[in-house]
Design brief:
Length: about 350
């Protein structure tokens, strides 16, 4: 090969090598960037969907858990309804200027058949209207199984002032304003709501106009003075804490309605947020007539209640990202009232 030909071949190879090492052109660079952006966009979209699904699943699980907690709390109290009540029942104020008892928390009045406290006091439509549905309330009665027993030393003729043997300002025997006591002696049983505790160590007061209308010292019957002797003295008398528990929905914050549990005259407690519906239905049986009815919305004979169907509906705290709607979950349970399933001992009804 001639010298000139070899030089031309060498130059051609050098030019080829320079072209191969020159990198991407602008078009190639733009195409590669576009492809990368498409891949990254798809990846981010997928990750966002995964994060949204995880967040939604978390809210779904939380809503379901909240409903189960609420149901367990209600059913536990219903199961224990009537626990510790004396066989003859507990009288409530009646006769003369007596007024109906006020339902704790939810307000309104409670049915007291035969002038005695009912094991369960239905409140059909007694709660607020949520999503155009009238919600229910239910009040449950029982002796506090953790309560100490107080011994009455003396009481005023009106029953407004009671001195106890124990120190009621300290320790496990301490009494608080709003406590509800059932006082029992040979003459029967009566309820009293503590309105204040004296600065002395043993005196408590049960004045008129308490939050639940329990005391009513001017009523003819069914108050504390009704279990006194004819001369105004009291036979040996003991006292235990008594619980009136009401479940209802509070809709003051319409965005987040709440299931409430009100105990006596104490401030109601929030059980679960975002509960939209609470409904009760009752299975009744009259032992005297040997007849019953099922799935009743309410009854004028609450001591015939043998079981309670509880229906709860809750929703997620916020709308789901995919559907832009709330997730809703409902749960229904039927609960036997243990202390009245086999025989009603409280009013003979």
């Amino acid at each position: 090969m001639a010298q000139r030909d070899r030089q031309q071949l060498y130059l051609a190879i050098r030019m080829s090598m320079r072209k191969d090492n020159s990198g991407f052109t602008m078009i190639e660079f733009a195409i590669s960037n576009l492809a990368t952006m498409v891949i990254l966009g798809a990846t981010f979209t997928l990750l966002n969907s995964i994060f949204a699904a995880n967040a939604g699943m978390g809210e779904i699980m939380q809503t379901q858990q909240n409903i189960r907690v609420a149901m367990n709390t209600i059913t536990r109290d219903i199961t224990m309804a009537g626990t510790g009540l004396p066989n003859g029942g507990i009288a409530v104020p009646n006769g003369g200027p007596a007024d109906a008892l006020t339902r704790p928390g939810a307000g309104g009045t409670m049915a007291t058949p035969n002038n005695t406290i009912a094991i369960l006091a239905p409140g059909d439509g007694a709660g607020p209207t949520v999503n155009n549905i009238a919600t229910d309330a239910l009040t449950i009665t029982q002796i506090d199984q953790q309560s100490p027993v107080w011994t009455v030393l003396s009481a005023s003729t009106s029953g407004i002032q009671i001195d106890f043997v124990q120190n009621v300002r300290a320790g496990t025997m301490q009494l608080f304003s709003g406590d509800l006591l059932v006082l029992t002696n040979a003459n029967g049983s009566a309820l009293g709501c503590v309105t204040s505790v004296s600065m002395t160590t043993s005196r408590a007061f049960f004045a008129d106009n308490d939050p639940m209308n329990i005391n009513q010292p001017d009523a003819a019957n069914g108050n504390i003075k009704s279990i006194a002797n004819g001369d105004g003295t009291y036979p040996p008398t003991t006292a235990q804490r008594f619980n009136l528990v009401t479940y209802y929905i509070n809709n003051d914050n319409a965005v987040h309605p709440r299931l409430m549990r009100a105990l006596n005259a104490q401030a109601p407690q929030v059980i679960v947020d975002d509960i939209e519906n609470l409904q009760f239905a009752f299975d009744l049986f009259d032992f005297q007539a040997n007849s019953g009815n099922s799935n009743q919305a309410t009854t004028t004979s609450p001591n015939q209640i043998r079981s309670v169907s509880v229906s709860l509906t809750g929703r997620s705290p916020s709308v789901m990202q995919r559907s832009n709607k709330y997730f809703r979950f409902s749960l229904v349970s039927k609960v036997n009232v243990r202390n009245s399933t086999f025989r009603n001992r409280y009013t003979g009804s």
